[in-house]
Amino acid sequence: MKKVFAFLLKLIGKLLLIALIAFVATFTLYITNGENKLIYYVVRPFLNKHYDAQVRDRRIV
Amino acid sequence: MKATDKLIAAIDKKLERFDPLWQAENGTGGLRSRYYDKTGVAKWREWRGVKDTFYDYTQWINNLVSMAGMVASAPVPILKGFWEYRWMGSYLGTFMFIDRLFEGYRGTELRIAHQNMHAIVQSLTKRIAFILSNDRRLGGGPDTDKIIPHDETITPLFLKGFKDLYPVPMQTLPEFIICDIDQHIEPYYIDVAESFGLPADVCSRCAAETGVALDDALPLVGKIMLSTNMPCNASEATSMFQRRRIGLPDNPITLAMQHQEKEAIPYSRKELENALAFVEEHYGVKYDWNELFKYATLMNEQNTIELEKWDLFKTPYSPLSGIAESLYRLYSWQSANGTDPYFNKVDRKVIEIMRKCYEDKYLPFGGKTRHRAFLWGPSAVYYTDFPTWTQNCWGITIVLNMDSTMGYNMIDTTDPDKAMDDLTAFTQRACMRHHAVGGWENINAVWEWAKNFNCDMVLMNDNIACKGMLGVHAVMEEQARDLGLHFIFIEHDLEDSRTVSRQDMRNCVNNYMSVVLNEKPLDPTLLEFDDSQAF
């Protein structure tokens, strides 16, 4: 019984630690507006370069 | 006061100097202070106090999970979609878009706004995954031939009687919604259309839709298409271009222009019946009225709640207004349209909150509202986050927008004959149709709406390329003078922000508020700023 209890405590402790790390990481990303900076300055310029290089079959019919 | 509340109050006091609303009140900055110039990229997210910042963070996670779910449900089609379609890249601006829309929102206003917005996000992400998974351009899928692609201004509801088919508004993903998120996407498609000799002075929405079609950027799904003449003559033109480029058998649903007239119903009803017969013929299925009644019941509930909301909008105690109201109604009516029970769930929650606010005589936006305005505005009000800006800069609450006045009649759920008449009336009052075209009565209705909702101001968007509306400019101004309403024409070129910039639009209000009304802004950092390179 004690072993199960200790295991559960350990598991809960680990889960709490993972939740804390996940919270700190995501909240930091959120508050620094990190994902939007990445999208605006890196991802979109990269995608735009690709879109501009596309050869598209533009026709009316 | 509980210990945690005391602790939160102490932290809020300590950090209040980072709150842009506090900064504006104390002359140390404001809502625009945290942005890099021109780009619309914020250096950090808005500090709204502990509770509201944490709530905003949880909703950011919520939306992030929906987007991750979208990618996980169809990873290959989504990646292919990003690589194939320019408009897919624009959806990456969604987080920035949501931040802009709810800037300055606190407490109940923020909670309702996020509930409404998440309904849109969860619906859109599922729809993107579904359409790209079945897009013939990307290899097709198991449901490619079960989809009924129809024009975005045709309501999907009347097609829900086909049990195993999926009505999908064709232009919603590549044009209708994305133009609100990224101001730079539609000019690209407009240029594509104009490079074929399409005149540059036509409605930019229709030009953009044409450009999307010519650029092969409309996902290819279904066996047929249902085009329409709605909402106006420019839409007829783009429908013709789209049908030629897409090449699927097309049934144009040409509804009566003067749809307020009694005689319009039998004529338009026949058009809808023809469309149903066209679907039956091409898909080999039978229309099931019991299936339709299931969804009509959901739509009726949506509209019943909407009408109750309208009663609450008439009071000063509604925490739902501006873009949180207008964009939600636009999507939940025109796109969801009774086909997604998630919207009913959200509506039930939101109306409960609104009832409570009314009982408590809750004054939204910290009681800073100075004017109540009725807005007669299309998509240019979304990519500019215009209602949020009028609230934060001048204390003008947008009580209701024209998009919210779409079909609000109930649909009979027992008798197919009555239901068909109801569906016809409902469909005729679609997006942009109920307001700007289809007769003088529709335009003139703005005064009645403004009066009924206890507004002292009307903001009327003046689409400089809308041939239908150009003639009424002076008449409207004269009427406003006679009725004693504050009236501001906001010039814009709908989806082409190169012709009339966001700042040009804001200046229309700035000039009226400072020169005519001699008022001072609530937040001076919002008066003049350059966001020309922002999404």
3D structure, described in words:
The complex is a heterodimer of chains A (61) and B (535). Chain A has 61 residues and is mainly α. Chain A has one domain. Chain A is 82% helix and 0% strand. Chain A has two helices and no strands. The longest helix of chain A has 30 residues. The radius of gyration of chain A is 24 Å and the shape is elongated. With 535 residues, chain B is α/β, with parallel strands linked by helices. Chain B has one domain. Helices cover 53% and strands 6% of the residues of chain B. Chain B has 23 helices and six strands. In chain B, the strands form two sheets. A four-stranded parallel β-sheet of chain B has the order 4-3-5-6. A two-stranded parallel ribbon of chain B has the order 1-2. Chain B is globular. Chain B starts with a helix and ends in a 19-residue tail after the last helix. The model of chain B has no long low-confidence stretch (mean pLDDT 93). At the A-B interface, helix 1 and helix 2 of A face helix 3, helix 6 and helix 12 of B.
- Overall number of domains of chain B: 1
Protein structure class of chain B = alpha/beta
Strand content of chain B is 5-15%
Mean pLDDT of chain B: 93
N/C terminus separation of chain A: 76 Å
Interface with most residues: A-B, 24 and 30 residues
Radius of gyration of chain A: 24 Å
Strand content of chain A: under 5%
Tally of contiguous helical segments of chain B: 23
Count of discrete domains of chain A:
1
| Largest sheet, strands/sense/barrel of chain A | none
Number of strands of chain A: 0
| Uncertain residue ranges of chain A | none
Largest sheet of chain B at a glance?
A: 4 strands, parallel
Number of helices of chain A: 2
Q: Residue share in helices of chain A?
A: over 70%
Helix content of chain B: 40-55%
What oligomeric arrangement do these chains adopt?
Answer: heterodimer
Task: Output the helix-strand order of chain A.
Answer: HH
Strands of the largest sheet of chain B, in order across it? 4-3-5-6
